[in-house]
Amino acid sequence: MNCPYCGKPASQTQCLHCGQDTKAPRRVCRSCKKMTPQNVDHCIQCDRPIKSDLPWKIVIIIAMFFLAFALSFLVAIFR
Ligand SMILES: [Zn+2]
Ligand SMILES: [Zn+2]
Fold it and tell me: What is the pTM of this model?
């Protein structure tokens, strides 16, 4: 198999070329669209910080909560 990070042949779980664990969970970097380990803060390819999806989900949940609150408020007014 080839190393998912640098593309060079890697027979072991740790790539001899880039030193990364080829079996570790990984994700696609949003900046460079290359593979980077999931447990790092900065992309190993382009060194940009990897942002989690969680803050956006929290924003959406809060927005939905306020939308539901506003709707129930309007229903209470126009009833
Ligand atoms: Zn590699
Ligand atoms: Zn990157």
Answer: 0.57
